[in-house]
Amino acid sequence: xxxxxxxxxxxxxxxxxxxxxxxxxxxxxxxxxxxxxxxxxxxxxxxxxxxxxxxxxxxxxxxxxxxxxxxxxxxxxxxxxxxxxxxxxxxxxxxxxxxxxxxxxxxxxxxxxxxxxxxxxxxxxxxxxxxxxxxxxxxxxxxxxxxxxxxxxxxxxxxxxxxxxxxxxxxxxxxxxxxxxxxxxxxxxxxxxxxxxxxxxxxxxxxxxxxxxxxxxxxxxxxxxxxxxxxxxxxxxxxxxxxxxxxxxxxxxxxxxxxxxxxxxxxxxxxxxxxxxxxxxxxxxxxxxxxxxxxxxxxxxxxxxxxxxxxxxxxxxxxxxxxxxxxxxxxxxxxxxxxxxxxxxxxxxxxxxxxxxxxxxxxxxxxxxxxxxxxxxxxxxxxxxxxxxxxxxxxxxxxxxxxxxxxxxxxxxxxxxxxxxxxxxxxxxxxxxxxxxxxxxxxxxxxxxxxxxxxxxxxxxxxxxxxxxxxxxxxxxxxxxxxxxxxxxxxxxxxxxxxxxxxxxxxx
Length: 508
Prior knowledge:
AS_sf, 13 strands, Amidase domain-containing protein, Amidase_dom, signal, Amidase signature (AS) enzymes, two-stranded antiparallel ribbon
């Protein structure tokens, strides 16, 4: 894997060992609240914190490849944050002020960082403005540390490429068991947070790309309600399904980040309708250790909890059900989710996404000030020409080709796919949740993501355990549009009752 110039700069920045012995907590697993307290008490500076993460990146990133680029101005930004804090600047009271954050490499920043979706086809492109979420993070005083690796084009180029692979970054690895699937497409965001190369990160999800890597790498991921966070300036797949959300080590950290990035953006019309779901006072207020009390949680055994005979997960989730019940949750068991087999077949979703990607990508590319490509056809040609260089493994581009062959949103196949997904949603999870008065649905790992994707619904993944070989798995709490407050209560209550997460072991 080629080392980017931005990563090479770390050698200059980090020709030292960061001494963390003077802190009364571990920087390696520190929460946003702990870091913020240390910053405000002047026992830690943003520069020291950034230097610590840079040293971690130098040590760990060559092993797992979670970060594609580091912001060459990151220490300048840290110094600015320290000066703002000393001068009592207006944004210095923000929970994320002076906190480093990593953005998935499909989230645009108007700075010295590239935004490429992991592809050489977009290397050197220049955006006209920050993405909506990056602008909100800067307004909150967060420090943009760099860009995270991902499954190339958010896993919308090739169906045969492994999770976490990009031409630019190589193969990202699971820090717990490096031979295990790290999942994607927000792979780098999850593994970088899990391995303590950064405090918090952003990922994106079209179908599973936050929930799955969070589950696979023992971190917390929130896939928000569609439009709750802006997608403007994000390399798209589908405006109908794309979301941006936090990936962090704790539910509380994820809530802090969510607070910072939600809200109206004039460049994303979906944020208009979704803004009504944002609770006055934000999401931090729902970090309630007794949040499970009285919550009605639905369990659909088939197909979600059908594990192989003797699976360690069978007993693990039975224990979790008991823990949820002991902490006041009301479990509504043995429910049936209508048409789940049709949803999981993905037939309608595949047709819709292929049609939407071609159009959405052209729109994104048209707004770039500079770009090597302007259409999906250009990207396909680039990949064909680049493969002749034989510099990187080639995994094909069958998904690109399928999308290029679509004929637009007026096609009968596309219209039928939309109608089918609407019917599956209304007669499936919506009916199940409303008829049973559920606050959330419980599912293992990322098995529910297609249900959430086609409906624009939220979900939160929380660490749930480790297999015999050390591979992590997660539990997902999901609901209908605007259910984030109750999902945060539930996820936080479960997290506090179990305290399952542990640092990675980097097993081979």
